[in-house]
Specification:
509 residues; eight-stranded mixed beta sheet; single chain
Length: 509
């Protein structure tokens, strides 16, 4: 009830002015700006919010009022997809000692901005800290940050991790769209994706910022499903939303969708013009991932126009951007289209886990009991891998093949898994024994899998481990922090590996 809210805010301002409470005067004006933005006067609303936050930034307000005004500004900016404004104020808050933020909640919104700006490593760290701050305290923001985690996984092609994060967000009462629908599309479930995104668009009909991300996904899914009418309707609605908002991100999204539709109609020249406009607008919005995606689509149009040099330039530029971001699936697609799909090498810490004597355990306790044990083990291990930013490459049946970007995080994950098993064993009387092996090195990335000598070494080290043991290579041991104790460093000959490999044991207890 925005009319009632506006009247209440004006009344607060009048009372506060009469009694000389500056904090409440500014808070009331900020709330009026917030309401004006949500009733369509974006320019007027932003003016009031800017004034309020400028007052806070000058140090003229108390801590609570400053944090509340700052929160309303950032949320309002995100609500109209004005990522540039949100980023500017977040940067100002970091530079200034006068702007204070609410812990957790404001960090969730900062994560959103960092993701759009392509600062994915920092976004991941911010998301982890934000979740720790809001978990069990504020379910909505926990759902929001889980959605951000899911999007980061999706961009990197880690669909299983993305789907899990989105599922957890949904459990917290937050709808993780369009990410979850796009995961279904990536898994070739076009019908499921179309139904899911359709419901989300219907439920978010008045939430303009949500529509900026939902409608392009709906259009993409409709085109994949051969639903020309659905794609046209989504595009038309997005154009209307972009006209209302006028922000770079909204304009960029609308231009790219319009370009796709013009391409579908056979108007290649018009499609190229719109997609070029989309690329420019995404750059203005400082969103390198979406700009690179627009370049991939533009390259397709240039190819259809017979302009091979322009297509090659767009593909090469997109590939560079994707590689910098770590968006491996998109980088691989660009390389393939350039005819340069050479093996992509990646340096990671590889982990192999395995339930010890699983066959004997199955025979002893029976199928039903084994199913319960196995399910608990998989659920527990997956949660710990996710918490430590591990990418599950394969479920090997009785264990997992997982890759980590950070060696210390991989070892911490292995320790956390063994301790979780030991805790469950003490509390419940039983948990399966697991052995773990780790090695850091380079491998060839093929789709979502890793192949190479260093992967084999990790697997062989895992096979050397005994029950409840963590074995690591000397290369891993050399990178560990002081808080991890390593024992029994010795050289071992591994099956199929010509040169001996130094192996050690992590004392995790």
């Amino acid at each position: 009830d925005y009319e009632q809210a506006a009247a209440g805010a004006r009344r607060v301002e009048a009372i506060a002015a009469r009694v000389g409470d500056r904090d409440l005067v500014v808070l009331a004006r900020a709330m009026q700006g917030f309401v004006e933005m949500h009733t369509g006067d974006i320019v007027g609303g932003m003016r009031l919010l800017d004034e309020a936050l400028a007052t806070a930034a000058a140090g003229e307000l108390g801590l609570f009022a400053t944090a509340e005004v700052f929160c309303e500004m950032v949320v309002s900016s995100l609500d109209v997809a004005d990522y540039e404004r949100a980023a500017e104020w977040l940067e100002e808050a970091e530079r200034s000692d006068r702007i204070v933020c609410f812990p957790g909640c404001c960090r969730v919104h900062r994560t959103t901005v960092l993701r759009h700006r392509g600062e994915w490593d920092e976004a991941r760290r911010s998301a982890t800290q934000a979740r720790a701050e809001v978990a069990g305290v504020e379910a909505t923001h926990e759902g929001m940050v889980l959605t951000e985690m899911g999007e980061l996984h999706r961009y990197k092609g880690e669909l299983a991790l993305a789907e899990r994060a989105f599922g957890q967000a949904y459990e917290k009462g937050w709808t993780p769209q369009p990410g979850l629908a796009l995961v279904l599309l990536a898994k070739h479930d076009t019908s499921g994706a179309a139904q899911m995104i359709g419901r989300s668009v219907e439920h978010s009909a008045q939430e303009l910022a949500s529509l900026v991300s939902l409608l392009p996904a709906q259009c993409e899914i409709a085109i994949a499903a051969g639903d020309a009418a659905g794609a046209e309707a989504a595009a038309q609605r997005l154009i209307e939303v972009a006209s209302t908002l006028g922000t770079s991100a909204a304009v960029a999204a609308a231009a790219c969708v319009n370009g796709l539709l013009l391409q579908q109609r056979g108007d290649l020249a018009g499609a190229a013009q719109e997609l070029e406009r989309g690329v420019r607008a995404w750059h203005e919005a400082h969103d390198p991932y979406e700009a690179a995606r627009a370049r991939l689509r533009l390259a397709t149009v240039f190819e259809a126009l017979g302009d091979a040099p322009s297509a090659k330039l767009e593909l090469a530029t997109a590939r560079t951007a994707f590689e910098k971001l770590g968006a491996t699936p998109a980088a691989t697609e660009a390389a393939r289209r350039l005819g340069e799909d050479q093996p992509v090498h990646a340096t990671c810490t590889f982990m192999f886990t395995d339930i010890v004597n699983s066959t004997e355990l199955l025979t002893t306790i029976g199928d039903d009991a084994w199913h319960g044990v196995h399910h608990w083990h998989d659920r527990t291990a997956t949660a710990i891998f996710t918490e430590h930013h591990g990418r599950i490459i394969k479920d090997t049946g009785d264990g997992f093949f997982v890759a980590f970007d950070e060696t210390s995080m991989a070892v911490d994950c292995a320790i956390a898994l063994q301790r979780a098993l030991e805790t469950h064993r003490r509390a419940e009387g039983f948990a399966p024994a697991v052995r773990i092996g780790l090695h850091v090195g380079s491998a060839v990335l093929t789709g979502a899998d890793y192949l190479g000598r260093d992967v084999v070494i990790a697997a062989r080290i895992g096979a050397l481990a005994s029950s409840d043991e963590i074995r690591i290579s000397g290369d891993v041991a050399d990178q560990l922090e002081d808080h991890v104790r390593v024992t029994q460093r010795q050289t071992r000959t591994l099956k199929g590996i010509p040169a001996p490999v130094e192996v050690a044991i992590v004392d995790w207890r």
